[in-house]
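Researcher: Hi, I'm a grad student and pretty new to this. My advisor asked me to get structures for two proteins we've been looking at. I'm not sure of the right format, so I'll just paste the first sequence and hope you can take it from there.
Model: That works fine. Here's the first sequence with its structure tokens right after it:
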Amino acid sequence: MPRGDRRRRLGRLRVQQQPHTLGGTVMPYSARMWRRMLDGLERSYPFHVSLELMPLGPDGRPVSPGPGALIAVHRSTTHPRWARFEAEAPPDLAGWRGSAPVQLAWAGFLKEQAVAAGAHYGHVTDDANIHATALERAILGVAAEPPAVPHCREVLRGYSWVTVCAAELAARLGGGAALAASGCFDEVSVLPGGQVFLRATPALEDYDGPAVQRCSACWPPCSCRAGPARPRLRAPWPGSSWTPTRPNWAARNSSGHSAGPDPCGRGGR
């Protein structure tokens, strides 16, 4: 549950019950409204919930004119059993730019949440947002919902400074031991659910062109077949560049319900 002194932090909670990205109910954050939202999950599970936070200065005004920190959960509108869990914060609020300890704390948070949620994909990066990974944007453009979310056990949605790779994809690459032996990553950890946590370099700033190309060499076997529901994702071209925005961790996972075959032809989860 979010904590903080309301006199020092401004919060805005948005709940969208319908499968649309716009609209919904927007309200100031308070412990009472947060509890009401959580209690309402038993009656109706929403498609989108987001909490935006902004620290306030001594004068009671926001400390930054830019966006605040954001925590959000988005259910897929086409495959509602799948959800995306996201958190992001601009550098002037979180102090992550140039700070390896803060960056590693974000990486640790992703690892912790990926284990807790059983996530099949996750990342920490400064070149993605809620609409898609950098790889998806480069190849598919911007979509209201990343089309590869329900297929993330068959195709890697992107490779970032930190990436959580589904167990099925890791197996196609030889498993965690083979990924560690490749020398492409600074850290390789196999999570309890079989997913593999990969950190490419010691710090986010080190994940530049050569490091991206080195890591991309591991992933070509993870592309999927072309088709409207299975976009073909290829490795970016050498020398590609992306505009940094803010650190973002995102864990993607299924809800865990067993409901028959999924669109990829696999059994229920």
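Researcher: Oh nice, that was easy. Here's the second one.
Model: And its structure:
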Amino acid sequence: MAETDLYPPLQRLFESEGYVAIPQFSFVHPLFKKAEKYSPKTDLAAFRWNDCDEVEAVAVEVKPGSHTTSPLQGIPQGVTYQLLFPLAYVAAETREEDLDFSRGVLEGLKLGYISVSANHAQIVLQPRPSERTMKSDFHEMTRPAGVLVLMAQTFLKDKLAEDFACNAKSESFWLWTRQKDRVQLQFGIGEEFTYFSCYSDIKWVCGAVATRAEPGRIAALLNEIPPQYETQHTCDHVERTNTRKLDYECTGSEYCRFRHNAQEIGTAMQHVTQWCQEPRRLGTLSFCVKLWKRDRRITRQEAEERVLGVLEPMLQLRKHLNSLL
């Protein structure tokens, strides 16, 4: 059985316990890069709020196979996940009665174990908090990422027909609505702030929006954002760095920040229109609202209030920008 065939029952298991579960959760980190033969993605990550207003985060390494030793194959990745996730599991097709000596190894490393098949998943061993977990990295990266996943589940999934996709890096984190040929709604973590934005780095999308934009209309929509929110709207001149993939990097020479007025928006749109006409280059668009400081240990109520306060203006802005396509 393919590994990916085991993801759905694991998702259902964690969702039945109140988690938001995401397969192939990319969590690139310098410590992961040192172990190059291991994937930088956790096979599954799950987040939920507990009764103490704290984010519970777990990671699962999945290994197909029902042999007695199959669970042992997931240990290298499992203990790596423990660096950033307080609780980590190994999941395999091995039944509980066939664990044999694998049980003792897993228990000794404080890893949980899930017996999984194509239609069912059952927790056999509960994980325990590991002393390997780097608490500073958890609070600076894993917890904030979990908060945004939970915010996206709460506010975006019920309001949009699209699902959301997630990606993460050691210095930033973002998740966005999946329909990539449109302007996206994006949560992200930058160097200093957690933010919520309307964003696109698809060349034809940015070019079409910039060419057809009505600066006055966009300014009116941006002015619906409550004044207590700090904003940072930008367009960046970026260059294609890989001819086979949609990978871009800033040229370092040109970018434009603009405020909520028609003149500055018009100037920014002119830049994007020009940049999108250049071969292998484009101008990206980002209408960004800062939610809270990255290092703030925000509570569930605070996070929901901050997102809810700006959600409707951002939904309307995205709707208008996509109407230009």
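Researcher: Is there anything I should tell my advisor about the second?
Model: You could mention this: The two ends are 42 Å apart (CA to CA).
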